[in-house]
Amino acid sequence: MGVRCGCEVIRISLDAPSHRTTRLAITILTLGLIVSLIYHALHRHWLQPARYPFDSFMCASGSRFSDFDSMMDAGHANVMTPIVIALGWICRQITQRTSYAFSLGVFTLGWLYLLAYGLRKLVSPNFRPVFCPELWLMILSYPVLFNTDRGNPAGYVAAFIALGFIQWRQRRDGWAAFFFALATAIKITPAILGLFFIRERRWKAAILQILWTAVLTLGPVWFVSHHVLPGYSLQKFKFGMQDYFIRFVLGNDGLPWGSSLWGGIKLMLYWCGKADILPTMKAILPFYNVLSMGSLLLLVVLFAFNVVPDNEGILLITCWLVLMPQVTADYYLSFLLIPLVILCAENQSSTRWSVILLSLCVIPKAYMHLPRLEAVTIGSLINPILLVIVFFASLRAPLQRLAAKSV
What we know:
The chain has helices at 2-13, 20-45, 66-73, 82-97, 100-123, 133-140, 142-150, 154-169, 173-187, 195-199, 203-228, 234-250, 261-271, 278-304, 310-323, 337-346, 352-361, 379-406. By secondary structure, the protein is mostly helical. The protein has one domain. The longest helix has 28 residues, at 379-406. The radius of gyration is 21 Å and the shape is globular. The N and C termini lie far apart (63 Å).
């Protein structure tokens, strides 16, 4: 009865012809999730090997909510941005005054609500959390499920980006700059969202984003050094990032549950049978950095010449944020929900393939495990390939406009 009622709710909410593309996306997400659940259930009960990681597309059950736990006890403070350490301190205070479950629930429900609200308000002035198609896209998506399981603040980054875009569209520059700065203070790479202000010559908003980012970084540094970790400084964060570089960028720690192009390159080398890829990765890293910064510079040029419409710009920026950084964990695939709901709302045949590819990015793909690194699956190779196709295909129209403008 519950399944029938749920299906009826989805059917009613998607009856309108304008929701044809949304139906397509929800179908892909539903089938992707069902196939994955069946595959892992077969491994758990009948197929060999009947153990982790073959029986789940999540992390090991023993490490559930481990990102939340690390944030709360500042166990990896040197690789956390100051605002994340401060957020962990707040969660610890809530835990001490109530319970661990309550603190975790507040943290998780907070980003889930903000993300659902942001996704809905991007495409509609009304927010109906039960019937809105954007909610179904969100709860069926692998990165949301994965982040719920891990307890990472990446959900807040996605939510703040969505909320920032809402304010930016309404030309509320102060709030847009604030939300973009919040996302930047947590993750750093969303700093490129300032390109949307530069494109429209909204220089005051761009400066506000810089100022807010400074306040939301330096303020928590002072708070953490005085109330959480005496002696903490940005210098310690820098040293922590050097260790992170060795373990995650050059090493294998960033390979499982990752979706960056750099991770995909590492995975291809492993799959080709290379025993020690470290010398190779060190040799090609400068070339990858040129590719990454070159693609970013291209975006800067396209935005500066104002040849990228709003929705194309959102698609390009969010794809870059997932694809081009050297390490991108799967929970950051939630960024792709933002262009996905926008393209679904547009319901244009010209963007149908982008919707299909983005939908495929946010379904579980924990198949074909790497023999020497069993937690690494084919998903870490498929996602970068899909994103490369979407990103560079989306560059075609802006480059044509730029060429026409320069003639």
